[in-house]
Amino acid sequence: MISRRTGLTATAAALLAGAAGPAAAATRPAPAPAAATRAAQHRLRTDADAIVATGATGVVAEVQSALGSRTASSGTADLADPGTPVPRNASYRIGSDTKTFTATLALQLVGEGRLALDDTVERWLPGTVRGNGNDGTRITVRDLLGQTSGLNDYLAVSPDAAEAFTPEGYHRSRFRSQTAREQVAAALSRPPQWLPDPVGSPGGKRRWGYSNTNYTLMGLVIEEVTGHPWAQEIHDRIIEPLGLRHTFSPGTSPYVPAPTATAYTRFPGEDGFTDTTLAYGGGADGCLISDTHDHGRFLRALMGGRLLRPAQLAAMKETVAADDWIDAPGVRYGLGIAWRPVAGSRGGVWFHGGTHLGVVSESGVTPDGERAATSATFTLRMGGAGQDAQDRAARRLVDRALTGRW
Q1: What DSSP letter does each residue of 31-69 carry, written as one string?
Q2: What pLDDT does residue 34 have?
Q3: Could you give the dihedral angle defined by the CA atoms of residues 323, 328, 330 and 332, in that order, rounded to the nearest 10 degrees?
Q4: How far apart are CA 389 and CA 374, in angstroms?
Q5: Would you say 333 and 147 are in contact if contact means Cβ atoms under 8 Å apart?
Q6: What's the number of CA atoms in the CB half-sphere (13 Å) around residue 381?
Q7: Predicted local confidence at residue 135, as pLDDT
Q8: Exposed (0-12), middle (13-18) or buried (19+): which is 99, by Cβ within 10 Å?
Q9: What average pLDDT does range 176-200 have in this prediction?
Q10: Measuring CA to CA, which residue among 147, 151, 158 is closest to residue 5?
Q11: Sign of the torsion angle spanned by Cα atoms 285, 191, 15, 335
């Protein structure tokens, strides 16, 4: 699981200091034939093709509402057999989109009075966040969920971080897992980027900085509050009630179930792609496997008010500026979900997104949960303009799917 920062490829480079087939499309369920419907399906397929045209190997996308859903795929599932289409129900690691699930679970506990946003990390995990200037008495649940803690990202400061961004390093570590506490320990080996103002400080300003460590800690807090593993709570509170049959936590398994597509990564300084389908996926910060249909159903249920009480959904939508996170203007980060303005949409789009080795998840949902668009691109390019173009094309697909006529 990799950071969603715009600086992903730059970070990899600093640490180290395709073939497209014919598009395939399907609908679920099939809407009544009409000119508007045909145009919307054509637009989705065209936008999927546009992602592949940037040099991505394969893409699957879906747009859904109460009226039904339609999917489109483009490119190939396997460069060794370019005629193999990307399955429209492909499973994939959603990466940091997992954070929205974790934040939803935490806010459910807040709504039940078992957890408070102003609770400190020290209260629930005494002695865990200490050393090198790190201070768990200054970091709250709100800071963890909103990425305002100042903690270092364990991915960026781990001793073997540079090695991870090479084909050789990937092959050596793809079956290697870490515990949440090992990840936290890596983050605490360095001084924090900053310390949040003490709880209740008048006029305190919240600084923002993306760190996967925040959600690793949030998972540990959830386990302390509930007495159950994070994965169990995600299943019992979100996955099972919504009937998400293709969404699950794989634990330490590096495998993704079929049907799927090969996840390709171009590492910094490399000309070709490396098959990075096998990989450990982290924990509460980024481990979930899903598909476009389940992911869309989750986003619609969340924004539609079916998972959180009104007060907690409103708290989730309280945002701070998230400059330099992704290459899009006006982005603001809430509690496990972000917002950005979109031309043609009065309410903008709520989203998160996730990046894993070989897979980039891009999605969005309307503020009322009426419509969601989800996509997975089975290509990650660490370096060069190709990844930027791919990301822009994927966001364009989401924006057009959410603002166009059904």
Answers
A1: PPP-HHHHHHHHHHHHHHHHHHHTT-SEEEEEEEETTEE
A2: 66
A3: -60
A4: 18
A5: yes
A6: 18
A7: 98
A8: buried
A9: 94
A10: 147
A11: positive
- Which residue from 272, 239, 263, 259 is spatially nearest to 354, judged by alpha carbons? 263
* pLDDT for residue 201: 74
Cis omega (within 30 of 0) for bond into 202: no
Candidates 42, 99, 93, 41; CA nearest to 70 is 41
Q: Could you tell me how many helices (H) and strands (E) the chain has, helices first?
A: 15, 17
The torsion angle over the Cα atoms of residues 325, 3, 359 and 216, rounded to 10 degrees, is -130
CA distance 169 to 363: 30
Supply 73's token pair: 């795929």
Comparing 17 with 259, which gets the higher pLDDT?
Answer: 259
Q: Is the predicted pLDDT of residue 11 greater than 50, yes or no?
A: no
Assess contact for 117 and 103: CB atoms under 8 A.
no
Q: 339: pLDDT confidence band, cut at 50, 70 and 90?
A: very high
Residue 144 phi, psi dihedral angles, 5° rounding: -65, -50
Cβ pair 310, 303 in contact under 8 A = no
**pLDDT category of residue 12 using cuts at 50, 70 and 90:** low
- Give the pLDDT mean for 284-288: 98
Query: Phi/psi at 274 (nearest 5 deg)?
Result: -110, 135
* Collapsed DSSP state (helix, strand, coil) of residue 204: coil
